[in-house]
Structures are given as structure tokens and as C-alpha cells.
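User: Design a sequence. Structure:
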């Protein structure tokens, strides 16, 4: 049995950290696009665009839909809204208040 896990914040940040993928996200933020449109916008071959879109899809940041011969991609907005909050929670886990520190700072 194969168990799929949701992409972590780190997985999503890694996906966004590459220039081409970030550009793809910026274009998809304006609305749904087919791969051929994205090829023209980025001036890249279909294989490279599809490769980067697949990484974004695996990270849970985009969705795809086959329509005829064309594949259309759109942003999954909810992960973007959660990403900032989850990043902050990962970086700053709940710490006890200063009055409850076990070691004195003075």
C-alpha cells in the first residue's frame, strides 16, 4: 500500500526557489494557462515548461486538467495562503513566556 504525504513547507519553498518556477507561478497567478501559452510567455521549450510545472504540481502548488490535446494549469491558491503561516510556525514554535525560563539571562 502506498501512502502519500502532503508536501511540507520546505518542499513548497524549494519548488518556488527556482527562477523559472517562480515565473510560472507569477503567470498562473493571473489565471489559468495551457502549456503552449506558458512556453510563449517564458520563451522555453515545452519539455522544460512541463518539467517545472510537474515540480510545482508535486509540491501541491498547481493543478492541471487535460482538455483535448492541451494540458491547462492553474494555481492552487490555498497552499499559498497557508505557506506563510506554516513557515512562521515552523520557524518560531511556541516558546514559554520569558517569566517561565528555566535559566536566568542575568
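Assistant: Done.
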Amino acid at each position: 500500500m502506498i501512502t502519500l504525504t502532503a508536501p511540507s513547507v520546505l518542499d513548497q519553498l524549494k519548488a518556488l526557489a527556482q527562477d523559472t518556477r517562480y515565473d510560472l507561478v507569477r503567470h498562473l497567478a493571473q489565471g489559468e494557462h495551457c502549456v503552449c501559452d506558458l512556453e510563449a510567455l517564458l520563451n522555453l521549450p515545452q519539455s522544460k515548461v512541463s518539467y517545472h510545472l510537474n515540480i510545482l504540481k508535486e509540491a501541491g502548488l498547481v493543478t492541471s486538467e487535460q482538455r483535448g490535446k492541451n494540458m491547462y494549469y492553474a494555481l492552487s491558491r490555498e497552499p499559498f495562503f497557508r505557506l506563510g503561516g506554516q513557515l512562521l510556525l515552523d520557524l518560531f514554535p511556541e516558546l514559554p513566556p520569558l517569566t517561565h525560563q528555566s535559566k536566568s539571562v542575568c
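The chain has a mean pLDDT of 86. The two ends are 55 Å apart (CA to CA).
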